[in-house]
Hints:
By secondary structure, the protein is of the alpha+beta class. Helices cover 24% and strands 34% of the residues. It has one domain: Hotdog Thioesterase (Thiol Ester Dehydrase, Chain A, Roll), CATH 3.10.129.10.
Amino acid sequence: MASRVSERGPLHNMEARSVAESRTIFSQVMLPGDANPVGTVHGGTIAKLVDSTGAVAAMRHCRAYAASIVTVRIDAMNFVQPIHVGEVVTLRASVNDVGRTSLEVGVRVDAENVRTADVKHVASAYLVYVALDDAGNPTAVPPLLVATDEERRRQHAARARRAARRRTSGR
Length: 171
């Protein structure tokens, strides 16, 4: 049974929004409670921060509350370097592309040693969110305006990932 797509509800304002309107930056110092016994931060701690930061970017694009945006997929999450206790983790998220009711958000995670000012890229992720109306049905999301070559590149890559997801899921 296919669910109905709502055209009204919390996201009825369908003016296109720019990538810049969704950009979200969040920073947090990593504490001992975030880490394992050898002092590196748990991947799950970072995954939760990635999902929260990505959701804020999706909410900003849709201008909706958290209950209206749900995570349906973490397409890929790659950890490339460890994060240590005491480092400041900064997450940057923005909407890469939108479908009819879904959004792909890219999140980049960097860690900074505040004593040395060294910053390293530690993780990246692509997440897919679906917008829901007040009844819990998928609802249309605003179109995305891309303005720069980098935004167009990210949108093109997001569309390729969406096509690959459809091929593997049969939808």
